[in-house]
Design brief:
Belongs to the GST superfamily. The chain has about 230 residues and is an alpha+beta fold. The chain has 9 helices and 4 strands; from the N terminus they run βαβαββααααααα. The chain starts with a strand and ends in a 5-residue tail after the last helix.
């Protein structure tokens, strides 16, 4: 039913988390971003930003032609609408889901992505950039920790796409963070990690990338040297 174009990155994991939770039938098409497979013409036809994940829904609810969706946040919202699940239990809850999903897409993901780039992948260590993004990561961890005080999940008692969007990006050791500073975040992270669907989703990622390897300089050029051409 769902064809998922995927590589096991935080944004890729978001979608397998949903699909496993919802029990939807899906097929994974690996998109090895280190090899530049995201630039294949057939992929660009429905993912014009040359980024994964993207999906093709071969059985949309309106019974019409297949629907393609790119951008991980848009995919999560599409799937929540399709299934009627994980999008908030009522209108007020739905608004909160939208708020925190947009927070992840506009803040948590981009800022932590810059943390990863300057601490792990940049050809030279730039202390200002590293300090800037490690501190911003710390600030964002704090925002989420305060939100989770007294709540099981980001939107109260309900596990939603807001949790699925944020969870894969919380990588404290790689991001220079001490989870002891964030007890609510640590509790939530452990609870999401222990969900059977989370375990299945990450197992799928390990199957796709059976032997993770250090990114080569050539692969870094593919990922980080892109221009409009």
């Amino acid at each position: 039913m769902i064809e998922l174009y995927y590589w096991p990155t935080p944004n890729g994991h978001k979608i397998t988390l949903f699909l496993e939770e919802a029990g939807l039938d899906y097929t994974i098409h690996p998109v090895n971003i280190g090899k530049g497979e995201q630039f294949a013409p057939e992929f660009l036809r429905f993912s014009p930003n040359n980024r994964m994940p993207a999906i093709i829904d071969r059985a949309p609810t309106d019974g019409g032609e297949p629907i393609t969706v790119f951008e991980s946040g848009a995919i999560l919202l599409y799937l929540a609408h399709k299934t009627g699940r994980f999008g908030g239990a009522d209108p007020r809850g739905h608004v909160q889901v939208l708020e925190w999903l947009m927070w992840q897409m506009g803040g948590l993901g981009p800022m932590l992505g810059q943390n990863h780039h300057f601490t792990r992948y940049a050809p030279e260590k730039i202390p200002y950039a590293i300090d800037r993004y490690v501190k911003e990561t710390n600030r964002l961890y704090g925002v989420l920790d305060r939100r989770l005080e007294g709540r099981a999940f980001i939107v109260g008692d309900d596990y939603t796409v807001a949790d699925m969007a944020c969870f894969p990006w919380i990588l404290p050791e790689a991001q220079g963070q001490d989870m002891a500073q964030f007890p609510n975040l640590a509790r939530w992270h452990a609870a999401v990690k222990a969900r059977p669907a989370t375990e299945r989703a990450y197992a799928k990622g390990r199957e796709v990338q059976a032997q993770p390897v250090e990114m080569s300089e050539e692969q870094k050029k593919v990922l980080f040297g892109q221009t409009a051409r």
